[in-house]
Amino acid sequence: MNTAEPIRKKKSFLLFDFLYKYGTLITILLLIAVFGTMTDNFLSGTNVINILRSISIVTIIAIGLTVSLTVGGFDLSVGSTASLANALVISMFVWHEHSFGLGIFITIAFCLAVGLINAFLVINFKIQDMLMTLATMFIFQGVALTYTRGATISQNMILPNGDFATGQIPDIFGKLGQVPWIIIIMLVIVVAVHLFLSYTKHGRYMYMIGGNQEAAKLSGIAVSKYRLIAYLVSALFAAIGGIVLGARVMNAEVNAGGPYLMDAVAAAFIGYSVLGAGKPNAFGTFAGAVLIGILSNGLIMLSVPYYAMDIVKGAVLALALAITYYKRKH
User: In three state form, how does the secondary structure of the chain look?
Assistant: First the structure.
């Protein structure tokens, strides 16, 4: 009897298990070492702050997506919701001259309505989450474009009637998009969601629903209620991401939140394997966003063309998905 084969298989499994748990963190450390060696300013304090600032909006949106994933959902409309929030919050100040608090309140209320629509369609029509939110993604993107008439909203812009917009964006609003507040907002959201999902019964219920919806229902868990909450939270964080984006650039570009969808999806799925979690989790999503941020920043510093960035991001996402689904089947 050849005993060498089972031993080799066991060693191979242990190696894969180790890489599954710590591969993302090891990759981050390797990238830091490589980019730190190849460029002069990569490890400077200023550049570290730049990386954290650059991933803040992606992380906030990705955390919302992560919450939808915990219940077995997949909210593809987060990018469009962020675009809508970006357009709404800037228009509240520039077009309607609302105060800081009222402008943000109205924006979040509208975006929560988006989450409510998603939840209603997914839960009541029993259509697969990804397919339904793909449809609503285009709807909300169209709503944002229609609302802005396909134009950038900014201070002193020319209105359709030929007049200039007289509203001003509050100075306090602009601070939300600046260091340190943009980073603080991101870290508070990551920690809050991590604590909620990991240490409360509600978080455990959401994981149970994502693991086996029928078993969760038979256990007495209000499945529909928690799925509704998940989509509301997803829309809320997409709204916050869009608001922070508006504060960072101080205007509302056409479909400004759209490009964040791919990065948010990549961060969330990379996070599945961090420390062997095997499920969507806030800390893992943050680690995934850091990985993407380091890659983007390092490649830019090495003068890699911007149009090649999506190739790298797509490859990282494909690898993360391959590892995640391979682990589930073995």
Answer: CCCHHHHHHHHHHHHHHHHHHHHHHHHHHHHHHHHHHHCCCCCCHHHHHHHHHHHHHHHHHHHHHHHHHHCCCCCCCHHHHHHHHHHHHHHHHHCCCCCHHHHHHHHHHHHHHHHHHHHHHHHHHCCCHHHHHHHHHHHHHHHHHHHHCCCCECCCCECCCCCECCCCCCHHHHHCCCCCHHHHHHHHHHHHHHHHHHHCHHHHHHHHHHHCHHHHHHCCCCHHHHHHHHHHHHHHHHHHHHHHHHHHHCCECCCCCCCHHHHHHHHHHHHHHHHHCCCCCHHHHHHHHHHHHHHHHHHHHCCCCHHHHHHHHHHHHHHHHHHHHHHHHC
